[in-house]
User: Which sequence fits this backbone?
């Protein structure tokens, strides 16, 4: 493990039996798991290179229990790591040796479906896909669609501000949540927002979304649902050079067209996917775009034509348009299976996640090829081309000495490059532990201190999910100190009008 | 009163540090068009951002624009308009309602006020389009929030807090906003003569249809009786109007308008208004023209009420009956603008009791200094939430030097 986690608190570890017993009083029966064998499944999340057994696992099933567990931990200075389905790719749900792992998996109820207000109230353990399924019969769906949507929980989606193919047109999680119930580390239960389009006061929902389990534990969520578009059709467009594909993406958008999804794959990813699912992808191209238009039939038919013309204008070598739902799904099948497909051609891979300004795409891909040579590791690329969100997959073999370290160094270089060209470290997977130590690439100490002060407003003792997101842990008192070296005169040297 | 017209971020930092050292709170303004919104403040130092007015970068292909916070809204709108782009959240121009100069208003003020127009139901509010910001906190430190790309989850989303914070957390010096292509055309379906509850049902059905409605407003006859402008031109005296907007490529907007008209047949015959005429109607709705400060309701306080959309009609109907006021509905019923006959508390108590029952909230957007000094202008929050809000404020501005007392009454506000 190359990433350091906070030093375990020996005093807490020494009290483990007593802590387990106390937690059992709050969550009876099988809600507390303490044997090493049974805790095994909770040792890591989707970032499987890192593992750490927790001190104890607690699986509450009511908000009251969550509140009591947190209050107990707060009073006794015990750290808590919240966990949804454990699919995080950035290590957000990685346990700590001296912390309670608080699993929300039992919060599985859909509490209310309100079609008139286009809102659904759910418990945090409900999967993303289950929400869409619950409202499907009335022609509605929940727009954000991470590829992990069959497994990942809505609570985890809020914590990570997850995105998916639809986000280009329909926004990320943050644009689709209305309210929540959250339990603070002290055990205090708060309700934020509800079914209104806009909340009163500071936009706390907005900042909780994407806070990676560091501000509070979400025990209920109200999401906005949308009516499903009448129809959807996809184009599959191949290019013999990446630059042309990049130009096509930019041209579609500057023509005022916002597709329901616009995804790109590079040569290695196309080959891996085709070998896996036989989607009929062209193998003689350097880049493949899958562009989906959704909406009313007339609109989709017309926009398909416009996009096709743009693609031809950019020098596409192949352009197929789906003529049936089956064909549309076939076009997507390779893209959707890209990760497992790459998994077949390499024992291990690292999935990176960064966002760049779209115009920088050709440069970034060129530089990635150079890095691939430098590190002696292959890289395959699939990405959300419409919003510049890259997912380079770095192929390596953990059994070969040094390869994992090289893969990680390569990944860090890619993220530095993203920031260098004006982008950001993560577009949807979160910072977690994976990108924690790279935060200074993007933010100054002052920027990070301001973020940590906000954390203090929610969790004054820093007990909730410590060691994630921030490279350096500060005490709240120290962050609150004011450094004023300004003069005593009112507003020296500033011109007055 | 001291007014400091700052020229760059460094001067903002200096000013805030001096304010901390001297324990002298600052009132933050762009053009100051909304100085009379919020609790009246007692500061005698004004920090004026209007000289920070440059466009830093505009990249139409990336769908983003970066401007200094004091950039005039009017200039920025015409710049992006020249590339056929817009702010999708369709922010309102409050000049009609507040009686300020029509061409005034800064981008920083627009974001800090966080208002959203009719397209809120489809495209969200200002919060959804602020991608990044540079700002000076009440620690006197310049910090950066967010980034300059449309998809970003790196660290806490501080931009969400800055939008709608009315300048109480930090002074924005530069912001990056998402822009979107302007729709090729628009169509508005007009239904006449519906009562509020029925209109609310029609809007609920329309917004929940697959036809991608981008505006759903209802104007009861009583609200239209007294106004001129685009809305009055369309309305017969005392006749209610229900408006539903469809935008997009021409073939699609027309097609969807037709389909929606079919779907809403049971609510009566519909008329179709196109393009420029339609745009004029929605500007009037967006800017709350019926309650203009120059109109007959000039002396009435105006409330902005946000509620679960399907409860809007019944709520508004009862409110009119019991308060003697007038209302207009936007966001399919989820936003109600209410002009109420003057009262010492602008009817705050009665209104808030009612709003709380439907889990909504109400802010006084227009009201005299005396009224604003005597009531909570922004909706009071339950204890725990208010306390958390207060801790959030302190985490940005512990000495409470930025817009002290603008958001809530009481010593610590
Ligand atoms: C194959 C695969 C594909 C993926 N594709 C995508 C994708 O397309 N887009 C995308 O955005 N992500 C994707 N992910 C990442 C992951 O699925 C998302 O980040 C997801 O939102 C995590 O949800 P979870 O329930 O598994 O959360 P977990 O992994 O359990 O937790 C994630 C974080 O959320 C916190 N957390 C969880 N529940 C709560 C709660 N109730 N209250 C407070 N904090 C909580 C945890 O502490 C942790 O920090 C993918 C993952 C995999 C394995
Ligand atoms: C032609 C035209 C069209 C317009 N159209 C729209 C439109 O479509 N949508 C729209 O939303 N608006 C529009 N507006 C403007 C809008 O109505 C607001 O009036 C305006 O943006 C407020 O700006 P201001 O500088 O006067 O705000 P002020 O009254 O100065 O400030 C408002 C609030 O923001 C705070 N504040 C101001 N600047 C900052 C800053 N830099 N950092 C932190 N806090 C700050 C203040 O303290 C105050 O609380 C339009 C304006 C014009 C002129």
Assistant:
């Amino acid at each position: 493990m190359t990433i350091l986690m906070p030093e375990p608190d020996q005093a807490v570890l020494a009290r483990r039996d007593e802590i387990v017993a106390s937690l059992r009083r709050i969550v009876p029966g099988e809600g507390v798991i303490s044997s090493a064998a049974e805790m095994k499944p909770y040792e890591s999340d989707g970032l499987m290179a890192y593992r750490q057994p927790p001190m104890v696992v607690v699986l509450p099933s009511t908000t009251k229990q969550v509140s009591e567990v947190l209050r107990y931990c707060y009073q006794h200075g015990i750290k808590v790591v919240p966990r949804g389905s454990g699919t995080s790719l950035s290590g957000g749900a990685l346990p700590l040796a001296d912390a309670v792992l608080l699993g929300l998996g039992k919060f599985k109820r859909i509490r209310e479906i309100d079609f008139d207000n286009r809102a659904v109230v759910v418990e945090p353990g409900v999967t993303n896909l289950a929400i869409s399924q619950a409202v499907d019969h009335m022609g509605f769906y929940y727009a954000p669609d991470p590829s992990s949507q069959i497994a990942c929980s809505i609570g985890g989606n809020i914590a990570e501000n997850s995105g998916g193919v639809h986000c280009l047109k329909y926004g990320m999680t943050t644009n689709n949540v209305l309210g929540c119930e959250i339990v603070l580390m002290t055990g205090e239960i708060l309700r934020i927002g509800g079914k209104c389009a806009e909340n009163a006061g500071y936009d706390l929902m907005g900042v909780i979304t994407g806070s990676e389990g560091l501000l509070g534990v979400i025990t209920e969520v109200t999401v906005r649902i949308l009516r499903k578009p009448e129809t959807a059709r996809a184009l599959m467009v191949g290019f013999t050079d990446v630059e042309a594909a990049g130009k096509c993406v930019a041209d579609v958008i500057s023509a005022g067209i916002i597709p329901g999804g616009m995804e790109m794959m590079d040569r290695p990813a196309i080959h891996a996917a085709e070998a896996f699912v036989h989607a009929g992808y062209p193998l003689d191209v350097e880049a493949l775009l899958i562009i989906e238009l959704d909406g009313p039939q007339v609109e989709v038919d017309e926009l398909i034509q416009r996009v096709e013309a743009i693609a031809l204008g950019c020098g596409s070598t192949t352009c197929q348009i789906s003529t049936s739902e089956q064909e549309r799904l076939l076009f997507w099948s390779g893209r959707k299976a890209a990760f497992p497909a790459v998994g077949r051609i390499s024992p291990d891979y690292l999935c990176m996640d960064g966002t760049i300004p779209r115009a920088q795409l050709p440069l970034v891909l060129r530089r990635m090829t150079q890095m691939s040579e430098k590190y002696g590791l292959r890289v395959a690329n699939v990405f959300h081309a419409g919003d510049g969100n890259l997912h380079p997959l770095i192929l390596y073999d953990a059994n070969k000495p040094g390869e994992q370290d090289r893969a990680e160094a390569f990944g860090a270089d890619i993220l530095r490059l993203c920031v260098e060209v004006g982008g950001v470290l993560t577009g949807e997977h979160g910072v977690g532990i994976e990108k924690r130590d790279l935060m200074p690439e993007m933010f100054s100490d002052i920027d990070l201190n301001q973020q940590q002060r906000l954390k203090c407003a929610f969790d004054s003792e820093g007990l909730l999910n410590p060691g994630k997101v921030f490279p350096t842990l500060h005490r709240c008192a120290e962050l609150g100190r004011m450094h004023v070296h300004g003069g005593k005169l009112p507003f020296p040297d500033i011109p007055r009008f | 009163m001291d007014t400091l017209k700052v020229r760059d971020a460094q001067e903002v930092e200096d000013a805030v540090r001096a304010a901390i050292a001297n324990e002298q709170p600052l009132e933050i303004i762009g053009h100051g068009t909304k100085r009379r919104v919020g609790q009246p403040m007692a500061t005698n130092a004004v920090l004026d951002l209007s000289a920070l007015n440059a466009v830093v970068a505009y990249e139409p292909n990336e769908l983003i624009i970066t401007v200094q916070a004091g950039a005039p809204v009017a200039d920025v709108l015409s710049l992006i308009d020249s590339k056929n782009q817009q702010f999708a959240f369709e922010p309102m121009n409050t000049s009609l309602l507040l009686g300020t100069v029509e061409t005034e208003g800064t981008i920083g003020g627009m974001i800090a006020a966080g208002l959203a127009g009719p397209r809120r139901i489809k495209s969200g509010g200002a919060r959804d389009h602020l991608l990044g910001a540079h700002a000076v906190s009440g620690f006197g430190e310049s910090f950066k929030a967010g980034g300059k790309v449309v998809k970003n989850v790196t660290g806490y989303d501080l931009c969400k807090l800055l939008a709608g914070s009315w300048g109480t957390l930090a002074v924005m010096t530069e912001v990056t906003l998402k822009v979107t292509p302007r729709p090729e055309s628009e169509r508005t379906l007009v239904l006449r003569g519906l009562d509020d509850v029925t209109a609310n049902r029609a809007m609920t059905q329309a917004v929940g249809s697959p036809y991608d409605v981008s505006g759903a407003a209802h104007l009861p006859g009583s609200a239209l009786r007294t106004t001129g402008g685009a809305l009055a031109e369309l309305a017969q005296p005392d006749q209610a109007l229900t408006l539903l907007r469809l935008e997009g490529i021409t073939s699609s907007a027309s097609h969807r308008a037709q389909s929606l008209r079919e779907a809403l047949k049971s609510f009566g015959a519909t008329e179709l208004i196109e393009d420029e005429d339609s745009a004029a109607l929605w500007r009037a709705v967006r800017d709350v023209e019926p309650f203009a400060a120059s109109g007959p309701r000039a002396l009435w306080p105006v409330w902005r009420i946000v509620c679960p959309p399907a409860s809007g009609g019944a709520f508004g109907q009862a409110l009119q009956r019991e308060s003697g006021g007038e209302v207009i509905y936007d966001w399919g019923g989820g936003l109600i603008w209410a002009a109420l006959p003057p009262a010492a508390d602008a009817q705050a108590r009665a209104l808030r009791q009612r709003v709380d029952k439907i889990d909504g909230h109400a802010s006084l957007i227009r009201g005299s200094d005396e009224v604003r000094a005597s009531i909570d202008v922004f909706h009071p929050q339950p204890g725990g939430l208010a306390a958390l809000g207060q801790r959030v404020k302190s985490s940005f501005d512990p000495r409470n030097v930025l817009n002290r007392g603008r958001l809530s009454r009481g010593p610590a506000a």
The mean pLDDT of chain B is 94. Chain B has 15 helices and 18 strands. Residues 9-22 of chain B form the longest helix (14 residues).
